[in-house]
Amino acid sequence: MRNIKKQSKIRLIAIIVLLCVLLTAAMIIWKTQSPVHLVAQNGVLDLSDEDLKHSHSNLSGEWEFYWNRLYTYQDFQTQNIDETQYIEVPKTWNSYKIDGENLPGFGYATYRVKVKVSEISALSLRLDSMSTAYRLYVNDIEIASNGTVGTSKETSKPYFCPSVVDFTPPASEFYIIIQVSNFTYARGGIWYEINLGSHAQIDTLGRIITYKDAILIGSLLIMALYYASFYLVLRKDKTSKYFMILCIIFIVRTALYGDMLMIRLFPDMPFKLLIFLTYASLYWIPVVIYWMIESIYECKLRFPFKKAFLLYGISATVFTAFLPISVYTSFVTLIEAIGILIVAFSVYLVVRAFCKKKKWAWLILLAAVIILATGVHDVLYQANVIHHCFGEMASIGIFMFMFAFAFIIASRLSYDYEQSKLLSAALTKALEKEKESSVELLKTELSFLQAQIKPHFIYNSLSVIAAFTLDEPVKAKELLYHLTAYLRGSFNFENYNGLTTLTDELETVKAYIAIEKARFEDKLQVKYDIDENISIFIPMLTIQPVVENAVRHGILKKPGGGMVILRIYREESSVVIKVEDNGIGMDKQKAENLMVEQGNTKGVGLKNINRRLHLFYGSGLTIQSEESVGTIITIRIPEKGGDLDESNHSG
Fold first, then answer.
1. Is 289 helix (H, G, I), strand (E, B) or coil?
2. Measuring CA to CA, which residue among 512, 594, 509 is closest to residue 553?
3. What does the pLDDT look like over 616-642, one tens digit per residue?
4. Which of 15, 103, 207, 429 is deepest in the core (most CB within 10 A)?
């Protein structure tokens, strides 16, 4: 019940945020893009009753149109031009007919409109791209140009870049003349609105467009980097990868439209590359959107749509890279239709998930519907089917869609984090139980090792002590103390954690050596090379059994005996314990069998120590041996893990 209430609150918050963003965007657009709703008629735009200081006007409507002519103001003044026709602006000239036939995409023409204003004052024009080069005159003065206008492909040069120009009308009635040529794109002409107003109005409009694009690009870049880091850490999370890719595509797409920040940053960018990026992004946006939705809901479909859409994206991109601009741009309607169908199919998957009450399906559905609606709007707007003051709205759809997906991915990560906390808690409990089991195992191992202390060693020790009692009572007393120390070190049941200090372990070793030297005298030589500054905890009965193994199986089996050397020193972050003897040694295979061979009673003590070292430190002892030369057994204790701290090792 609590989870249901929590989800309801989150949904309510998400809806409120989405509505606030939509309302804010609508208010900004309404405030900054609300021109005077007047249109030119028969080549005349009458703004004499309008105050352009507080509003701006779109120069839309019927313009004079002269196909395959590049007229200037002087031409209109000096020549008797009676071929006037009218064309709708903004609109590509391909849809215009002369003598019953549609005009081709390639060609050149002159547009002219007469503008009437209430007073002569400084004005500004905002010009978006035209297909694909233009020169603009106010009466006989050229005030703006883009690319090179020509009468053939060889004499013209395409270029896209929005511009703002300031001018003062020569009179209250003046002509705006635009020469346009296109020998590159599939469609030609003036395809975007031209805005006229005061400098302040046009400057504000330009700033809003620039800020909108910059904020959108910055937000998308932050999200791309954020989710790229998630993908680098969690490679299995494909949704983060697709989200990152989509952010990058949207960044490129946004930089190519509106204020065309891409051109402003790279003014020398080849025109072919600019158009290629524009169309390539158009191919991949719907494909990656589908991938994202499919990855979120793990859709199981009979037909491999993911591979089919991937093939479409790759084929279209290759097609665009190698064919002339005029060829692939002629298929823009088909490309946009395919994109809308892919997004529509993605919306269908979300609707299906929504019907199955999948988590966050309602939010994805809302975002998908918004981006589908804005996509359809922009297709119709760019095709000049619809006209209004709002311009392109894809940026709003992009922001809403990315915001929704960022919210969903963040929610999924939050859910995964909560699940990981629960799993971590469960794992901690399991580890505690395992630790308890390990302690019990250590007790068992230690008890088993203690059981290996042979009774005859005690009998022999007592016999030696008894022999010294009559002749050397002081020596007998000393040996009795050594035996007591040895037994105390071997049967210490107070430390249930299986650890003892290095000092106590060495006391047991020295007690054992003292008794054995009393028995075997000069046949057994012992040397200690110990760093007295080392003070750590080690597992009980770690060193003594190794020393005993060196004495019994190395030195005493060698005619004439030999020497055992015990070295303890620091090396990097570890304490190294080495037991060396120059006894009979053994071959490599026999040394390995001491650790692994089943049923080998001679290696029981060493195998026991090796297991306990692995339990404590993750690594065991190492054996180096050579026949007739001797044996070296090495133990490494991590100094950090063995620091002398009673609080860490108390029972």
1. helix
2. 594
3. 887 888 899 888 889 999 999 887 755
4. 103
